[in-house]
Amino acid sequence: MSELLNRRLALLGEHSHLSLLEKCLHGIERECLRVTDEGRLAQTPHPEALGSALTNEQITTDYSESLLEFITPALTNPADTLDSLEKIHRFAYSKLGGEYIWSPSMPCPLPAEEDIPIAYYGTSNIGKLKYVYRQGLALRYGKTMQCIAGIHYNFSLPEAIWPVLKQTEAFEGSDRDFQSESYIGLIRNFRRYSWLLMYLFGASPALDASFLRGRSHQLEQFDADTLYLPYATSLRMSDLGYQSNAQADLTPCYNDLLTYTDSLRKAVATPYAPYVEIGTHKDGEWIQLNTNVLQIENEYYSTIRPKRVTYSGERPIQALMARGVQYVEVRCLDINPFLPVGIDLQQSRFIDAFILFCALQESAQLADCECGNASSNFLTVVKEGRRPGLQLSRNTSTVDLKDWANELLDTIEPISRLLDQSQGIDEHAKSLEVQRAKVADTSLTPSAQVLAAMTEHKEGFTAFSLRQSRTHAEYFRGRPLSVEDQTHFETKARESLAQQSEMEQSEEPVDFDTFVGAYQASILAISN
């Protein structure tokens, strides 16, 4: 363990500081496809009873009209965050009729590309902008890829912790600057070590063969309709998932907040020849917001993002540049198809300890070879993380995955104990032991268990996933919300519909072309 990490743990362990660790915030976003009783993509519109996808803060859609997104508030106790997520699921099931929520990350058998419905957000200019952005995604990456779902885990340390940690080093600058620099350091460490999360929690070793749309691949045949890799942990996060030639050169190595925002700023303002050739209009209709490397900064696909809550009309880059980093969004987590909401408290406890380790551990700038190692280790683990004797790259040599994983768990252990001490529990330590067992025995990992369940039941990916989806539907439908909670969600749904209607009726008469121009100018203004 590094001297800096030791010093910081000792400092946070002092009686006057220990309670700070209770004040970390946790928020979860879960994406999930709506499917029919046969396990096909639901072609129905977003259910009105769930409210407006544009203005409901807890239930919206992601890329497709069929891709739900459930959003919890940010809460100090992860048990409360998960309870909030479960309540959203229970409410959704009270309004889904005969439809199901698809249990894994990789999609159900999908219809033809043109039949995958893009999410619709109404007739306001912001609603149209969201729709055109998604049309652009379809052009750039195809609709199929946009139907992959995941768990996004939002985590922040309390603001009061940064002045305390700042004492541990000679930092010249404000507390806010130190906070942003520390979060960027956290992200660098996350890039170094996130392969461990993919080994422990990856849950997508197989997929429906139709997902590839005839593309060439190196996958093996599980049965007539299922492809897989025997040692894969997360095909979702492999090169079969989100691919982009335009983004290939856009790999910010997170040396500081300025270089990160700079690279995104340039990408949103720099034309990309193949997109220029397509143009922004076809037959007089918008088909993408612009012809640049990125239409908007959120298009940049990464395993983790620095974030700041935005004000109305403010763009993410503007918020980061104006007020610094407030929290991180971990984006690489698969949905665990064995768990009703796709994640549980035990996993959450370990992720908290892991992120805190990334924040407190020394984090030198990523040299070129380290950047390359981080990417290749991640890709190696998602495709063959359970392969016996698997070696990863560390500095200029190789190291056995299990040895390195155990070293990391040893370093995370005192952080788990400190979290437990701050809350008067032993759950973080228990979760750490569960992860140690997975390192010792690959059959305990979710990815291995998915393949084991498919083999045991003699079923392919779709049959397995539909069986799990039905099991979870039964779980949620058998636990209806209290009258009070049900009424709360129904009221919020109605209010969101009214809010969307009000937006559409009271909007100033600005034509959409002008609106998009102003939106584009907001980033160009920063660029200049």
UniProtKB/TrEMBL annotation:
Q: Where is the Glutamate--cysteine ligase domain?
A: 10-381
Q: Which UniProt keywords apply?
A: ATP-binding, Glutathione biosynthesis, Ligase, Nucleotide-binding
Under the heading InterPro entries, the entry gives: Gln_synth/guanido_kin_cat_dom, Glu_cys_ligase, Glut_cys_ligase
| Catalysed transformations (reactions) | L-cysteine + L-glutamate + ATP = gamma-L-glutamyl-L-cysteine + ADP + phosphate + H(+)
The family database entries (Pfam families) matched by this protein are listed as:
Glu_cys_ligase (PF04262)
According to UniProt, this protein's pathway is: Sulfur metabolism; glutathione biosynthesis; glutathione from L-cysteine and L-glutamate: step 1/2
Q: Single GO cellular component annotation?
A: cytosol
Instruction: Keyword check for Kinase, yes or no.
Output: no
Q: Which GO terms describe its molecular function?
A: ATP binding; glutamate-cysteine ligase activity; metal ion binding
Annotated EC: 6.3.2.2
BP GO annotations: glutathione biosynthetic process
Q: Which HAMAP family match?
A: Glu_cys_ligase (MF_00578)
Per the similarity annotation, which family is this?
Belongs to the glutamate--cysteine ligase type 1 family. Type 1 subfamily.
Per its record, how is this protein called by name?
Answer: Glutamate--cysteine ligase
This chain's source organism reads Pseudomonas abietaniphila
Q: Upper taxonomic classification of the species?
A: Bacteria, Pseudomonadati, Pseudomonadota, Gammaproteobacteria, Pseudomonadales
